[in-house]
C-alpha cells in the first residue's frame, strides 16, 4: 500500500484501538465477533492480516488461539504488543509488512485468517487478487478466512447524514452505485470501495469458496447519529438493537447495503495442489 495509507495508520494507531468502542462501531464489532465464532475453526493458528493495533487478535488470544499479526504500521503493532502485555497476552509474531507481501510466509501454516482492512486500500484489482491468493496459499486444507470490503452502497446511505453536502452534485450520488477509487482528498485516506457482487467474485477468483457474507452494520447501517443518541438516552433500546443487528448481519435483506461487507470463505480444495502463483 502507498506511503499515504501507511502514514494514515501510523497517525491513527490509538484511534484505531478505541474506534470499535464507539456506540455505532460496536455493531461492526459484535457482528464480526459473531462471524469469527461461527466460522473460524475452534482451535489453531490465525493470521490477522492488516491487524492494526490488534483488537480482534486480542479477542482470539483470549479464546486460546495462536495469532500472528501482520500490519504495515509499526506504530499499530507496537501498540498491540503494549496492550496485549497489559492483558497478559502474547502473540506468536508481530510482522510489519504490507499485505501484498504474504509470499514471505510459508504455505499451509494457518487454520484461519482475518483480512479485515487491507482490501480497503488496494486500488488495483490484480493486487487485491494477489492478497487473496496468497491468503489461500498460507492456509491449511479447509482453512477459513474473513475478508472485509467497504461497500459503496452502504457508504451512499451513510452519506445522507454524514456528508450530505457532497450530494449537491448528483454525480456524487450515482458514483456510489459502483466501485470507486478515492485519493486521500476524497476518502478518509487512499481508499477502494466496491459492491457486493464484485467483491464476492474477487474472493472466488482468489481461490476460495464462499460460505456466507454479512453486512456488519445490518439494519442499523447509516444510522450512526441515531444509534449514538440511543446509546446515551435509552441504553436498553440500544442494547436490544445492537444484539439484533449483530444476529441478523447475514440476512439477505440487510447485508447488501452496509458500510462494511464481510465475506466468509473456505480455501478451495483445488488450491491445495497449486501454490505457484
UniProtKB/TrEMBL annotation:
Q: Does the keyword Isomerase apply?
A: no
For this UniProt record, the keywords arranged alphabetically read as follows: Methyltransferase, Transferase
Report the GO molecular function annotations: methyltransferase activity
**Entry's InterPro entries?**
Methyltransf_25, SAM-dependent_MTases_sf
SUPFAM superfamilies for this protein: S-adenosyl-L-methionine-dependent methyltransferases
Organism superkingdom: Bacteria
What the entry lists under Pfam families is as follows: Methyltransf_25 (PF13649)
Residues covered by the Methyltransferase domain: 46-143
Does the record's keyword annotation contain Methyltransferase?
yes
Give the GO terms filed under biological process for this record: methylation
UniProt-recorded name of the protein:
Class I SAM-dependent methyltransferase
The organism encoding this protein is Paenibacillus faecis
Amino acid at each position: 500500500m502507498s506511503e499515504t495509507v501507511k502514514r494514515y495508520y501510523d497517525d491513527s494507531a490509538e484511534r484505531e484501538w478505541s474506534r470499535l468502542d464507539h456506540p455505532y462501531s460496536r455493531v461492526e464489532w459484535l457482528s464480526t465477533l459473531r462471524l469469527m465464532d461461527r466460522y473460524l475453526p475452534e482451535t489453531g493458528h490465525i493470521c490477522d492480516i492488516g491487524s492494526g493495533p490488534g483488537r480482534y487478535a486480542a479477542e482470539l488470544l483470549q479464546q486460546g488461539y495462536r495469532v500472528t499479526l501482520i500490519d504495515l504500521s509499526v506504530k499499530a503493532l507496537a501498540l498491540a504488543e503494549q496492550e496485549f502485555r497489559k492483558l497478559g497476552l502474547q502473540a506468536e509474531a508481530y510482522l510489519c509488512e504490507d499485505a501484498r507481501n504474504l509470499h514471505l510466509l510459508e504455505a499451509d501454516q494457518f487454520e484461519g485468517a482475518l483480512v479485515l482492512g487491507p482490501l480497503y486500500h488496494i486500488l488495483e484489482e490484480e493486487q487485491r487478487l494477489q492478497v487473496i491468493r496468497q491468503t489461500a496459499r498460507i492456509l491449511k486444507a479447509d482453512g477459513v478466512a474473513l475478508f472485509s470490503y467497504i461497500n459503496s452502497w452502504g457508504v451512499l446511505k451513510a452519506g445522507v447524514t454524514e456528508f450530505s453536502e457532497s450530494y449537491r452534485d448528483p454525480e456524487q450520488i450515482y458514483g456510489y452505485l459502483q466501485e470507486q477509487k478515492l485519493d486521500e482528498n476524497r476518502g478518509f485516506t487512499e481508499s477502494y470501495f466496491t459492491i457486493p457482487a464484485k467483491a464476492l467474485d474477487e474472493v472466488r477468483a482468489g481461490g476460495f469458496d464462499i460460505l456466507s457474507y454479512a453486512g456488519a452494520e445490518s439494519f442499523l447501517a447509516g444510522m450512526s447519529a441515531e444509534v449514538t443518541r440511543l446509546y446515551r438516552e435509552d441504553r436498553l433500546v440500544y442494547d436490544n438493537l445492537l444484539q439484533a443487528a449483530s444476529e441478523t448481519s447475514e440476512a439477505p435483506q440487510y447485508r447488501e447495503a452496509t458500510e462494511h461487507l464481510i465475506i466468509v470463505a473456505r480455501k478451495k480444495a483445488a488450491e491445495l495442489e497449486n501454490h505457484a502463483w
